[in-house]
Amino acid sequence: MPQVQHEDQQARDDRRRGARPRRAWRNEPMSAKSLRLAGALVAIVSTSGCATVQAGMGFDEVGHTVAERTGRRIHWNQGTAADEAVEQEVAALLGKPLTAESAVQIALLNNPNLQATYEELNIAQADLVAAGLFRNPVFDAELRFATEGGGTGFEMALVQDFIDILYIPLRKGIAGANFEAAKQRVAGEVIDLAGRARAAFYTAQASAQALEMRKKVRAATEASYALAGRLRAAGNITELELANERALFEQARLDLRTAELESFRARERLNVLVGLWGEQTAWTTSARLPEPRPDEVGPEGLERLAVERSLDLGIARAEIERAARALGLARPFAVFADAGLGVTAEREQEGDLGLGPAVALPLPFFNQGQPAVSAARAELRSAGERYRAQAVALRSQVRAAHAAVTAARERAEYYAKVLLPLRQRIVEQTQLQYNAMQVGAFQLLQAKTEQIDAGEAYIRALLKYWLAQTELDQLLSGRMTSLEATANMNSGRSPSGPAPGGGGH
Q1: Which of 19, 41, 83, 237 could form a disulfide with 14, with the two C-beta atoms 3.0–4.6 Å apart?
Q2: Is residue 43 part of a domain?
Q3: How much is the mean pLDDT over the chain?
Q4: Looking at residue 197, which CATH number applies to its domain?
Q5: What total number of domains does the chain contain?
Q6: Do the beta carbons of residue 436 and residue 484 sit within 8 Å?
Q7: What does the pLDDT look like over 136-162, one tens digit per residue?
Q8: 145 to each of 140, 150, 158, 352, 381, how far by Cα in Å?
């Protein structure tokens, strides 16, 4: 900070001897020129502070980006009539069976964390406004009383960091780059939420389907156990066979309870993401997961599209711009960052008032600014390398996500075209043999139970496909995702039950 001019040792010695201080302008009265100098400085520093922060800047751009990438709209609650209209829209969507698209739209309109994220735009915009303001001037004053007679003296100075005036365009450039990055980050958070809500909806839908399958398994094993009880009472089966049937039934009951809990948890995860509570949580969904989509674009075209639309790379580019502007700021101003210019006034105990200019200038004896310039160059190089690394990682994620989608689609189609028809054929043939009294009821019930298990495995395959497709869609919407997170969601026994054959059949 600029330092106020103080008396030197010679001036203090002169005062002790009763001599007047040795300053060329000390005995001159305040002139009109000096008054104009003081007035001009005060006018400059006062008018430079007229700036306000306008809330909501940049939100329209974020909304346009989100609509372009997801086909959904967003809303920032501001305590207006539009907020009530959004509540009515959410209620209307909840009045119908939820789909993946309606769940995403509710999340983007109703998630409280998203409303908090929008405030980042106000923070970045406030920083942009602050970057265009002068630093506050520094006022310093001293009051001196004579120890023996005499009057009262004083010294005052008003100093403004004039180099800071030259900083303003560069500072605004840096803050502008940060503001652009903030808009990209907020849009990315919105798209992230859309992807999480979509994945949570598919998981809840799959869990509900798996629950229905577990109910069918329980009913089949219960019927088999009841039949075994009657046969045992008639002496047609052994106690061991009856115990085996009971074990299957008890395992089915346990699996059903697990499926109920998993379905409940899946619904609650979706409730959190879409911001629902109370009576709003009584929503319903469509009955089944949709069939896989056809593969429309190869991995090469997907890579190009993902790079073009990447918000993460946009943030990295904004960081490069910020670092470049910071280097431009460091080069010319690293040495004289604290230079000040102002006006000073002084009067001794007995004397006229003196007024004149004041200058504060750092002397670059020890630090000529090389460290600041070197650090700024390093930050710029680092930002460039991070951009290249992120582009490589993005392309890799696109290839991996496309491979995951392809594999999941093939698995789901194999179940639909091969395994499920095969299980259906086995049930039909077993039914014919049962009608001809060539097999018993146990074999028929087992065939039906295995058919249900295959159906549940198909649900898991569909869920893996839609989670993988959601991840790929996120990348194409401009947001990098975590392959590990998706792998964790896909791992485990099932959406809400054991693996095929887990019931012991």
Answers
A1: 19
A2: no
A3: 81
A4: 1.20.1600.10
A5: 1
A6: no
A7: 888 888 877 766 666 677 788 888 777
A8: 17, 8, 22, 16, 58
